[in-house]
Amino acid sequence: MKRSKTIGPASAVIVHGAEEYPDAPAITDERGTVTFGELDRQSNALANTLLASGVAPGSVVGVLARDHRGLILALSAAGRAGYRLAMMNTGFGKTQFVEVAEREKVRAMLYDEEFIDLLEGLPDMPRVLTWVDGDRPVPEGVRTLDEVIETGDTGMPPEPETFGGFVILTSGTTGLPKGAQRSKMSPFTSALLLDRVPLPQHGSMVIVSPIFHSTGFAVWGVGTALGNQTVVLRRFDAEKTLAALAEHRAEVLVAVPTMLHRILALGPEVIGKYDVSALKIIVIAGSALSPALSERVQDTFGDVLYNMYGSTEVAIASIAQPHELRQAPGTVGRPPVSSRLALFDGEGNRITGKNVSGRLFVRNGAPFEGYTDGRNKEVIDGYMSSGDMARVDDSGLWFIEGRDDDMIVSGGENVYPLEVENLLAAHPEVADVAVVGVDDEEFGHRLRAFIVRQPDTDPQPDDLKQHVKSNLARYKVPRDVVFVEELPRNPTGKLVRRKLPTGPLD
Fold this sequence. Notes:
It contains 15 helices and 26 strands. It has an 8-stranded mixed β-sheet, sandwiched between helices. Strands 7-6-5-3-4-8-9 form a 7-stranded mixed β-sheet, sandwiched between helices. Strands 16, 17, 18, 19, 20 and 21 form a 6-stranded antiparallel β-sheet that branches. A hairpin with a 3-residue loop joins strand 14 (305-311) and strand 15 (315-320). Helix 2 packs across helix 4 (69-81) and helix 3 (36-52) packs across helix 4. The chain is globular.
């Protein structure tokens, strides 16, 4: 149907659900449950209100919201009105937020009350509060989502001429996040996920990975198309996540590795309080999965872990299924249908051998259309750069070895931090770890490890260094070991290495 193409996938899956099972639960948040029929009508009310405020089809509308019904309504309403939706990162600072909003030419803003202060630098434009905590008065001229739903026209808006598209921001671990745009959707998009992850139909999913980013958004869209209920939390809490899984007999959990770390840190006694026997699938993405975490998760919850590898730009590149993670913990598995992976050396020559490290490039049916600032990723023979180094083993399983720009040259030897991080993460007294390169007069660079201790442990620097020395080459042993309370990670779980101190230690 033409309308399903012009209103976009996020809106189309809700329209379909409202037509086929209007009384089925679509989304559950802290305020309760909204059915597919209610979500459909509320989406229309929001779209019609924005159109009536003078925001023309084709305009860019921004949304700055945590995971709750307001974010889903923004996704759906933008498609119906023909808007391009820019999904803002909830970890933004004020300057960064304003710069991104200006760059993306945002003409209306939908946002949660907690982010009011970030909007101070924006020009006058239509604004809707998507979540109200009641901690402060509603600004003059700003409408709440509840008011819009109560007073707005719930009929379907005029059909947009084209799908407005959406902008997902990159993780921004090295500077201002870039906007990755998509204005058309390939039929292969859903196949990339479903080919390797058997999502249920008319079941229940708990998504704690941010829906404003690629993984949460992708699983929400495909899962909703299958008639599933989505349960979300505005802020991640390890025990509340277990409680939600138990209460809703959820078959699917979508998270990032750091969240699984925190769930496991609760210990077997707390985890055992919740019946999560319905859980069949844990989808993780967003940051590297260490072999140690891979094993601990499956030892605790059974063989249910799916490690999804990709990016905002290349979409889903590969997925490891539970049996593959048992065979090779930490692997990113194999490419799904329509996805092709290739390795190239520094001169752009194709690498065909097994167990040879190279720059990973991806070709599939769902690439992005370039950044909103006009730049693009490097492309060789139709394959797009992932920005990562990788290898493939003799059985066809793929492994990520780290970012190509994270490589540290120490004493003339190349070191990728991820290898050292994975080894240290396997140490029983290490909860989290990051390894960076710092200047060194003798070696050019040396390795510095930042360690988060496991609770009630007291690892010693020399013991951790010996642990690395016993398993890896001498030049991969960190010279410095620094203990910290936590590592700097963004909302999608990626380590922000630039926030780690690389200067002299006191």
